[in-house]
Each structure stands twice: as C-alpha cells, then as structure tokens.
Amino acid sequence: MEISVIIPVLHEGKKINQTLDSVKSASADVAYEVIVVDGDSSGDTIEKIMDAEVIKITARQGRASQMNAGAVRACGDILLFLHADTLLPPKAFPKIVAALSDNCLIGGAFDLKTKNRRWIFRAIGLAASFKHRLTRVPYGDQAIFILRSYFKNIGGYAPIPLMEDVELMRRVKRLGGRISILPEAVTTSSRKWENDGVIYTIMRNWLIQTLYLAGVPAERLVRYYYKVK
Prior knowledge:
The structure is a single chain. This protein is an alpha/beta fold. It has a single domain, classed as Spore Coat Polysaccharide Biosynthesis Protein SpsA, Chain A. Helices cover 42% and strands 21% of the residues. The protein contains nine helices and eight strands. An eight-stranded mixed beta sheet has the order 3-2-1-4-7-6-8-5. Helix 8 packs antiparallel against helix 9 (218-225).
C-alpha cells in the first residue's frame, strides 16, 4: 500500500523542511509521496522546500480546501493529513499499513504530545489521548489517516473554515466507519497555546467544540479561534 502525505501550509517556510525530514524517517521502506498544498497563491512556503521529489501545489486558502485539493492530486491507497508543525514518530508508515490491513478499519490517527515538556503540556497530551480514545474523534494535529477510496466516497472534508477534522470524524462514525488511535505519538508545536495563553486556549477550544457540537456554524466560531472580528 502506498501512502500519500498531504501537508496544508500557510507561511510555514521556517518549519516545512523539518516536517519533511520527519516524513522520511517515518517511511521505513513503505512507498509514499508527499503533496504540499500552499494556501498562499504566491507559493510562499513551497518555494522553501529543498526536496525536489515533493509535489507542490497551491489551493484556495483554508485547511479543508487545501487538504481536499491534495487528496484530488494523490495517488496513494492511504491519505495521511499532516499539519506543518507536527512531526511523525519514527517508522510510522508501517504501523499505519498494519492497522489498515484490518479490513474492519478505514482510518485512524496517532496519540498526541507537544514539543514543550512542561507539566501542563504533558497533561494536555494525556487528556487528549483519553478523550480521543473514548470518543473516537481525533483532531487534525494527530495526523489523521484514511483510505483514499473511503475518503472519496464520503465526499472528503466539508468546506468549512474550522472543525473540519471533527466534522469528518463524526461523519465517519455516523456512517459506521471504524478507526484506530495508534499508541505512538506525533509531536506538535505548542506555539498556539503559548501565544494565546495556555488556560485561555484550553477553555476556548473546549467552548468552541461544545458550541459546534450544539449546532453553532463553524463560520461563526472561526472568528473566536483566530481572534479576528
């Protein structure tokens, strides 16, 4: 099985090559391709990419639309959606292939930890692990992977500006799809928590998800997530 790694980016030139290096260490002889989808039409990030084999495209800004554009371009049997500030664990790809060798599963994600090792961030990772194993609704920063055929059949990510990961996983559950949360952890940046404040970010994220699940449209909630009017 071949894996298509789809990385939506916007002004990530400083981090993108480190992320691509983590993809190489994750491959462990599994066939793969990498598609970087820049939300900046000028290609601000993709022009910084040093690996000539990476497929570079631009798409309308917005994580959902960028990931859908990457999925259309993808040739692999499995789609792996990777945030630009998230690093995969070593030899992640064989674990993905092994998980999806179970015909009962259509996708999955990884456990989560942050680069910052302060106790509060370790607690966030543990809480996230417990929550996502309980709900089977992982977030996008956990490197969601899914069979390409299944993703296409259910219509891909919804064209919404926020909570596209939650919406996709809820739809998968509603349709009877089963996923696996792998015990290996991806390592994501703590920059948003640090920039916005840890407690504020935790409370805001909890409130936004609660309101979304209660039926408030993502188009209304996005302004609070990004602190824009």
